[in-house]
Batch of 2 targets.
Target 1
Amino acid sequence: MGKTAVFVGNSGVGKSSLTNKLLKTKVMEEGDLSKIERGKQTTRHTELLKISDNTYIADSPGFSSFELGEIDDIASLFVEFNEYIGECKYRDCRHIKEDDCAIKKALAEGKISKSRYDNFCLLANKQ
Ligand SMILES: [Zn+2]
């Protein structure tokens, strides 16, 4: 509590549904994908939802509606990567194919979850 969390992801993955579950009330109309026309999505703007004092959830638009290129360093979005990033051999390490990458090392040692790393690769490859 006392935090602000942001859900980010492709439209249709269920961010609004997840938010609704967390809030235990239906605050947003959940999108019915079968009814959504091509290119449309239910979350068109970022909403800040108060769950308790000083605790908010921001529901953001999906990646399809804003440019991933606006994010300089996708790895910085993965907070658990931060403590390893400085140990990468190359300053411009993309943490994907490089040797001596501290992120890949942490992954191999089980310090970073495979699913999180896989998501990172997915996002990084979209740039
Ligand atoms: Zn790296």
Note: Confidence is low (pLDDT under 50) at residues 32-43.
Target 2
Amino acid sequence: MTLETPCIYTAKYLVTGNAPPLEAGAFLVNGGKIVELGSIAALKGGHSGIKVVDFGDTILTPLLVNAHTHLELTNFPQWAATAGEGETPASFVDWIVRMIRVKRKLTAEDYRDSLLHGINQSIAAGTGAVGDIIAHHGARNQYCDSSLLGTLFLETLGQDPELICRLKEGLAQALQDEVCGLIKLGVSPHSPYTISKDYLASIYRKCRELKLRCSTHLAESADEVEFVEHGRGNIASHLYPYIGWESYVPQATGLRPVEYLLQQGGLFPENLLVHGVHLNQAEIELLAQKQMSLVLCPRSNALLNVGTAPAGKLLQAGVKLSLGTDSLASCDSLSIWDEMAFAHTWFAGELDAPTLFTLATSGGAEALGLQTEIGSLAPGKVASFQVLQPQTTVAPNEIFDYFVSSPCSADIKHVYLQGILQ
Ligand SMILES: [Zn+2]
């Protein structure tokens, strides 16, 4: 990779993520990092002779963070269409069963292609870091040539003790890599309803011991709550028989998903929780007390008809929030701009426009442990930014409303990752 020569970037507005929008703001980039930030007049005055790139009537803003996605499923819409499975089922369990049917026809090469498309689509959509889940661990090398930051969570799930022994070995081997390109490896025990209690507890133990980042889908659907608490419902009667797991339907635990996770040792800050749709007030307060991070995926929740996460209560309680698109099997784009616009309506104003921008930037960075590198434009952070060209005039006090009301993903003019134009 060739590093750029020092350069000052400026535009009509600079939205750093740390301060109100700055008119005629600028920053100096050297070696892929921001070294100074201020007004264009001050930067030009202090650094005469350095190249200046003026983007004119545009907005400069950080790249966003997609804290939960499955980029290996980016080609899912085409796969489903080819398999004659075009319609998205209305029920959560039917959706999982359909996904299994479609995936049975795929090869390792299909996942590799799909992951590469996902990486490229993410960057084009103004994303600089991802919390990506990968079930086909062999495809992870697609990240080797990518400049995306974040964590690649190696997914694992299962109930059969013999199979779990083999899974543990494979996982330990894959984790020896530690990184692929710039992305760090972590682990994702899929969810409380797809993994045995002992295996789940052993993964959390290992992650705490090795300080490995982890991510778990939690409290996504009413079906999950019923299954974990009572050992019955659609997951027990429909999903488990479909995949030959009838003999593994657990006894009723009497515990809701959050309590169940607590019992297995899963409530530690490095375990990034995803969805949190079905949470009561006591559970929200417990998550805050345990300093948990939670990724909200409103477009996926809407498509799968599982309900609305209590976003306002989570925010008020102090649970650390971020945004994720989830996969293209349950969402129609990998754009966090699109997710912000949808979330603004979906949560009925419980999360206002500046808050949604914070979730999409510094919230996502914190969720992935990257707060010193990305999430805002500031000296010392990587020069990962985008240039938006609004179709209509936007006043300084309208910028955050523009971010959630307009399809900003269509207004992206340039994307820079680590100082390099993509
Ligand atoms: Zn997911």
Note: The two ends are 12 Å apart (CA to CA).
